[in-house]
Amino acid sequence: MVHPIEHLRALALEARPQWVTPDELLSEAADALARLPRDSGELVVACRRLLDRCWFSGDLWWLCALLVGSTEVDVRDRVGKSLAEMQRAVSAASRRLSGGGASASGQLTVHRAWMAAEKSVVLSSEAATAVRRATSEGREVLVATTEGCWVPEEVWSSVAARLVDTRRTDLSLELVRLGGLVETVGRRSRWSVPPALLRRGIVPGTDGGDS
């Protein structure tokens, strides 16, 4: 079996929106991180390094917060339940909107968010283009979110600032405004990022100490 650190290193190198889905990234990261000792500094360092590379994933921020903030939660089980809950919410909303004729053309498109806030979401550039096309045609768009997508303000502010930096367009991610024909579906929850994960290089302007 591959050592979890090696697994995480490979995952971080391949974790680009063009190559992996949010669900795949979350599930693989949960599997690897769950195999590290909870009471060691190795887990915190591994989480920091993963977030340095995958700072655009709200799910990974949530996952690392769960791991570093608690020694008891079964993260693989929690991740599985979170993804299943999102799928149920999407199915219910799709039936409601499509069956109710809310879409002008009777068609509905669904896209998965990397991160979410009250007024905007982070989508892959491919999804963002599809959203613009759908709304121009008068079609409803659902943006699927897990509870992990709804990150604390300090994380969202940093990510939004980095995405509008034209030097980072190689990530193929875009901010998409919510409202009108575009709405999110999925449970929201309030959670916080442990101080050990808030350091320079991940969230600018904070400093929880360097590894």
Radius of gyration, taken over Cα atoms and rounded to an integer in Å:
17 Å
Number of separate helices: 7
Query: Which whole number gives the mean pLDDT?
Result: 84
Shape: globular
Structural class: alpha/beta
Main sheet: strands, sense, barrel:
3 strands, parallel
Q: What is the β-strand count?
A: 6
Identify low-pLDDT runs: 101-105, 204-211
Share in β-strands: 5-15%
Strand order of the largest sheet: 1-4-6
Query: What is the succession of H and E elements?
Result: HHHHHEEEHEHEE
End-to-end separation in angstroms reads 27 Å
User: Share of helix among residues?
Assistant: 40-55%
Can you offer a commentary on this structure?
The strands form 2 sheets. A 3-stranded parallel beta sheet has the order 1-4-6. A 3-stranded antiparallel beta sheet has the order 2-3-5. The longest helix is centred in the middle third of the chain and has 25 residues, at 75-99. The chain is 45% helix and 12% strand. The protein contains 7 helices and 6 strands, in the order αααααβββαβαββ. It is α/β, with parallel strands linked by helices. 34% of the residues are buried.
